[in-house]
Queue: 2 jobs
Job 1
Amino acid sequence: MFLRELGQSVTVLSGVGRSIAERLARLGISTVADLLLRYPRDYDDRSSFVPLASFASSERVHTIAEVVDHEWFGFARMRTLKIRIRDESGTAILVCFNRPFLEQSLPIGARAVVTGKFQYRYGDIQSSSFEVERLEGESAGVSAILPVYPLTEGLQQGQMRRLVKRALTEYGMRVEEELPPALRERHGILPKREALASAHFPEDGRRLEEARRSLIFEELFYFQVAIARRAMRRREAEVPRPPVRGLLKSRLVERLPFELTADQVKTSEEIARDMGESRPMSRLLQGDVGSGKTLVAFLACLDAIEAGGQAAFMAPTELLARQHAATAARLLEPLGVRLAFLSGNVDDAARPPLLAALREGRIDLVLGTQALFSEEVEYRRLALAVVDEQHRFGVLQRLALGRKGSLPDLLMMTATPIPRTLALTVFGDLEVSTIRTMPPGRKSVVTHLTKVGNEARVYEFVRGLLAAGRQAYFVYPLIGESERLELKNAEAMAERLRTEVYPEFPLGLIHSRLKDEEKRRAMDDFVAGRTRILVATSVVEVGVDVPNAAAMVVEHAERFGLAALHQLRGRVGRGSDQSYCFLVYADGLTADAKARLKAMLASTDGFALAEEDLRIRGPGELAGTAQSGYLRLTIADPVRDARILETARSEAFAIVEADPALLSADNAVLREVLERANPFADAPVGQG
Ligand code: ADP
Ligand code: MG
């Protein structure tokens, strides 16, 4: 649609010179297509006029007026223009602070649409905060509903409107229709040209709805085509499946000091079933913090190994990867599983033999960070890739997954539940397994909110726990001092807690700026109980598992997101004794911060909290999606537009299944969507 015809620089539009082009570039707009695809962020409904005379009773005036007079007041740089205007109800003054140019653009006798707040001052009805749009030729001002665009310095709303209008008149007709007509008819989708024009300059509210729905449908449809293509390729792929009897698994289960929970058994069976199918597995295992996902993943690894393959287990941080490696050493090595650890920090001497062992198949299970999937790492037969806390990974790592040998089975794990609609959009072809129950005997963590100033009481309470032999985390938003923010930080508080508050208990400090060696020591000391207090930043947020820890104190809790707070609280309550979480907050909470803290108090259920988080933050900013950029949609929002998504999805799958030719069709929209959706859409399959 856009690429060739409308891919020209914005400078082809009349009135766009170098300086305007530069300003547009700051908004990420360089071509005509960019301009047309920059949909309004909002609309200003001016469909009903409010005359000047109603200024006192109405929030704002919105009228068509004539310029009667210009007058200047003040001196030198303070010189300010006053424009007297008149509509059928009366006259008023526009006070044009910093807008001397209005003298030229609104000459006496001109007619204009004026919108703004007016007050009675110095004997006149006046306004200094108004928008004015001259009525003439190509002015956009007459439209009843006006688009509101994101702006940048030196670019006015009116200017932006005129540019888009121009782009629409000069180039809009060249927009080609690419959605199959039958599909459009079935769902009442407007022709693309019309949808585009009405999304920018809607004739009325209903038309705007129609236009937006059409564009949203189109975008989600192509997105789902990308997902469907991927699903098809997976379905057609064949993985050799030597028979597996689950012997290694049974041996591990026998050796465990506890029974698997019912949900661990269930999810583990779902995974085993997938791993018996001819196509590769693509499964998301979700379960709240502490629900025992690691063990389920290890069971899957054992099946892969028993079948003669290798397994790779990736964690988002070195800290967590090391912890998993230690657990694997404890649980799996006794079964004869050959283990290795690989991260960016494995030193140069140790590296080559390790890589050779992986290449030659002398290692069964390798645990590590994203280094596991870097260019230099080759596997003899990678059968299963486990990705822990997958919501923390960007696209690239997942892309890299696709390149390693034949298609491996993929098991992603997350403690941040993904709403079904999002799972559908992003992971169209991903199966989901859920652990809902916790291991038995867990007591839910008791949570207290404490206002800053009262933390001494918290410290005293924690002293009691420490004296009883338990351990505690203290978490801070900053590592060290900050010039801009006056917040408690981990370094200073570690010092204070060590010398003043708890001189009787050994204390460790961990944060991301420490050397890896130091980090490892700090963590090991805490795990082994050599230190009783661990002062930290949010590096301890994910995965860390120390069952003897009974207190989590988060200071400046108002600075943490809800998902982070829930993860932090999940560090305690891992044993059978009662654990506590203290959220210490500062004065002057924002409404959102207050809502987050309240939610933490109200629930310990990760699924409920994830929903609450969504409500507080609003759709479109789901955990990890916006930031990691794997959903770059221009107008659709998979949560808000869930219903359209489902329709678009079933159409896309039906079409791709019926007409595989679409897989290679030279369809510009599809290509563009794929480009945007990539590397996500075609990874990790299809390149193996
Ligand atoms: P997460 O799902 O957050 O990754 P982990 O896998 O870290 O949870 O497990 C949390 C803790 O629960 C670990 O100490 C683990 O050994 C323990 N655990 C796992 N499964 C069970 C079970 N069935 N019964 C008792 N404890 C279990
Ligand atoms: Mg975990």
Note: The radius of gyration is 31 Å.
Job 2
Amino acid sequence: MYTVKRDIMLREQIEKRGVRDERVLKVIGKVPRHLFVPEEIRDKSYEDYPLPIGENQTISQPYIVALMTELLSLKGGEKVLEIGTGSGYQAAILAELSREVYSVEIIDSLARKSEKLLRSLGYKNVFILSGDGYLGWREHSPYDSIIVTCAPEAIPQDLIDQLKEGGRMVIPVGSMYQDLKVVVKSGGKVKISDNIPVRFVPMVRDR
Ligand code: SAH
């Protein structure tokens, strides 16, 4: 039943809106998104909107996950940093498409729950840190790719610093509504381009 729903989601929500990267499409069609959604609302897993995952947080809309992943242009050998592990769904998608994923989550209970789920699904290349994403994860830097799935009001300098030369960051920036930005570091300079308007939960300061 979920396989059928996932195929329809892929066609109607993701391909129709223009996501073309074959590797991304294949992985979205494969990863069991419903396992990252709370049991009570599992039947809604493949609907065209974000869903609550507890602690006032959400798993992003499928299309946004696909779009942000496509914007990273992953080829398979990358070391990726994610800020905002949440349910762990985006981390699973990244793990399928890159070499290693380092994901930082500020809510400890979510970090532990996602870590457990990802392990149980057999992902051995995802590492989760319970901590403040404004600081990135310096120990494993620099990263080929950085994806931020909560919204800061400005691009955190630590994340720019931890991006490799030639690397790429996808990040929603703003308060109530945000612009999805693509940041490319090349020749020691940072180039920023705007993509679509999006709505993410705020990137909070450490409490
Ligand atoms: N990528 C997630 C969606 C995450 S929702 C998924 O696939 O399900 C955004 C997440 O960012 C929430 O879990 C929230 O707790 C986390 N977050 C907010 N501020 C943060 C910060 N400063 N550092 C790390 N994580 C943060």
Note: Residues 48-198 form a domain with the Rossmann fold fold (CATH 3.40.50.150).
